[in-house]
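Notes from the pairing session

We agreed to fold both candidates in a single pass and log them together. This is the raw record for the first candidate, unedited. Please don't reformat it; downstream parsing expects exactly this layout.

Candidate A
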Amino acid sequence: KETKRRLSLWSSVVSESEYQEPEETLPVLKHDSHLLNDYHLQKLNAHMPPKTQGYPWHLVYSTAIHGTSLRTLYRNMADLDSPVLLVIKDMNKKVFGAFCSDPLKVSKYFYGTGETFLFSFNPDFQQYRWSGENSYFVNGNWESLQIGGGGGGFALWLDADLYHGASFSCPTFHNAPLSTQEDFTVLDVEVWTVQC
């Protein structure tokens, strides 16, 4: 009995020492990011849909490179047919945004799927998934971009100059406001695509 107990104890010690946490792999960025550091990348990558895992991220739009224009943002995505990651930094240096199942575009109606989610680094990572309450995922026109809705406010709203924004709690995601204040001034915007 004692021999069996020792063997059992020994094998459990060996298996614990052999066990290692899986390494979190960071996505490969095909361009430099002004907004995302390794911590951001690790957290976002872990929450992206499985179909996007393992693919490189391509920068489609950046205010630092392309200027501050919603029209340019839409134009840069005209030929895309893949999910996008919208990343915003406000004047308070807070980073937040949305993973959208479809490219951002001008549309008469809301579009997208339940894979769409919101995120915020506050400074810890917060994620807001689809609540199932409505399907107001993404809508764009020449004057603004809206993500989430119902109940009188958008989860994320950006103006045509990508300078003013707003973030309110909304039924689509049951989110807290993403920025420090409900109305915020944009410092920088990046949009990444994961071409799967």
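Candidate B (folded immediately after A)
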Amino acid sequence: MNKNPKMIAGIAGLAVMLILAVVLATYMIPTIGEVRREMSLTPTPLPPVPGSVRAAGYVEQDTPEPALGTGSRGDKVTRLQERLKALGYYDGEIDGQFGQGTQEAVIAFQMKNGLDADGYAGEKTQALLYSDEAVRNDNEE
């Protein structure tokens, strides 16, 4: 029988690949099983369907507003500037850009309302700013 060297090399290559596949599978199968087990122990809770029995005790939580600071732009900044102006803290142009004037107005609001005056309109600042408890700025010029 004539032994072809290319055929022997091909068989050897397949044998090596088969051995690697078996070794890899030996390591991966337990890992996959562990991941599946972990996922089954910590399911992701889903909010109940409105009107269902589960919905009766479910309280939907508001998502906190993202902090606004220098460089922020858009409708949320425009709304912030309008509210600061209505309360007498902001006298600049309402342009939807959080610049130095907006930052100074936020700091003044925070100081007057007993918040940490950091110049960022974070969750606490925005919650108080848009509430009925917001203190007006009586030092309007």
